[in-house]
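TL;DR need structure tokens for one chain.
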Amino acid sequence: MCRHVAYIGPELALQEILFTPPHSLARQASDPEELRYARLNADGFGFGWYGEDDTAVVYRRGDPIWQDPNLAPLARHLYADLWIAAVRSATPGFGGDVVNAQPFANGDLLYSHNGLIDGFRPDIRREIQNLLDPDIEAEILGSTDSEYLFALIRQYLIDDADLSLEGAMMEAFTTLEPWMGPGRALLNVILTDGDRLVASRHAINDPCPSLYFTSDDDGFPEGAVVIASEPLTERERWRSVPEGHVLVVVPDEPPELLALR
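>> reply
TL;DR here they are.
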């Protein structure tokens, strides 16, 4: 289980999601309020944004967010109109190496997964591998269920050029469900191509992890949408994403909630 946050809107300094809010992502690493199955998020962290060529870029580390002495000055001076950031509590058996830290980037895609997939190794992993093109499987550098789920979503996007981000996400969840049997899959995913941002609150055979969003918090620029595992600011400014739904955010349009079933 992890905590993650996404921002889309006018350019914003990274510190405004990592450090400045009273319940910032850094605070959620050491003092989460709604984290299940863990007490801390100390197994790595990362953040992603888009470079001048519109390629997704990530900065990731395998140690706790509070141990990086470079992060606070970086966060004050890095600006972007889209951020995804995560702090990690590793599922037992998946190491805290930097290759397993999130978010993940591939081409124009940024991705973060808050959750777990029971029975991933070896059974579910093998099922996913059977659906992946060799080129996509070769791009997997770590060992986590999260990265394999990202590969499956990318496979569906490659297979159908007309498929939306949320469509590929839903297809991956549908594919996963019959493999799970009685096992749990916690499937809070944030995915963006730099233009469209989608975030799921979903689970199989278990309650969904928490997920919230706001589009009218005075602490963020007008027109911005912020999505987070736990509210960064006063709770009355935030709405809970309903269980079994995907939140779709497109610039200059109101956020839209879509049922997964």
